[in-house]
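Form 7-S
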Amino acid sequence: MAKAGTTTSARPRPPGGGEPALARSRADLEGLLHSLPLEHNQTRAVVMTMGALHAGHSELIRAARARADQLIVTIFVNPLQFGPREDLSRYPRTLDADLETCAREGADIIFAPAIVHEAPPAVRVCAGPLGDLLEGASRPGHFDGVLTIVATLLHLTRPQLAFFGKKDAQQLVLVRRMVRDLAFPTEVVGVSTVRAPDGLALSSRNSYLTTHQHQAALALSRALAVGVSVADEGADVVLEAAGNVLASEPGIDVDYLTLASPDDLTPVRTGQALLLVAARVGTTRLIDNIELTLPEEAG
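Output:
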C-alpha cells in the first residue's frame, strides 16, 4: 500500500489497477489534491466510511468509480456520532483489509486519518427536527455528529459527487438536506442496500452477532419483504403483517417499525414510502428499510 503522501497518476484508476495514494492527515490529503488536480470537466467522488469494509461498501466504491474521474474513500471512525453508552471502543477496525478493498475496487486516494479535528469542535452542524425522529429519538445528538463530520469531509475532499448507502435511510435524507440547505456544490447519490444471500442487510455491526443472533436478525428483512408483498392492501395491513413477523421472533427487541416519506421522513399512508425498522438483537442495534408504493385510500 502506498505510503502517506505518495502521488499517483491523475488519470482514473480502474478496479484492480494499482495502489491508491494513502493520506493519514489533513496535510497529506491537501498535498495529494494539489498534486492530482482535476482537469476541465473532470469529476471527483467521495465515499465516506468508518472502515470494517464489506460488500456493501464495495458496491458504493464501484458505483462512485463508474461515475468519477477521481475517487476518494475516507476511513474514519467518527467519535462525534457515538453516544456515551454506545460501541465506539469496540467498533471493528480493520485498516489493512480496508486498504486492500479500496485498492481492489479502484480508489485513487484513501483518506484514513487518526483524527479529523485537533479538538472536539465547538461549532457543529445541527440536524434540526429531522434529526430527532426515528434513530434520533433513540440516539440523541447522533445525527449532529454525523453531519458535522460529513460537512468537514466534504470541505476537505471537495467532491462533485458523494455516495451514501440507502440502508442508512435517515442519514441519506439528512445529508441531502444539509447539502441543499448549506449550498454544498455536491450531488448526493444513494446506492441500493446490499444484502447477504440470506437477506440480512450488510452492516459492520453484523460482526457482533452470534450465530443464533444472526438467525434471529433475519426477521428484519423477512418483515420488510412481507410488508412489500401486501403493500396493495394499504398502510395498516403493511404494518400489521410486518409487525407480526417481528413479534414471532423472541430474539428481536423492536425500537420502531414505521412508514415514512423517502423525502423528509414524515409519516405517509399513500404513494411512495419507506418501510423502516430498527431493533436490537442481543446488544446489537440493527436498522433496515425497503421502498414500496401504497395505494390511494378510499375516500
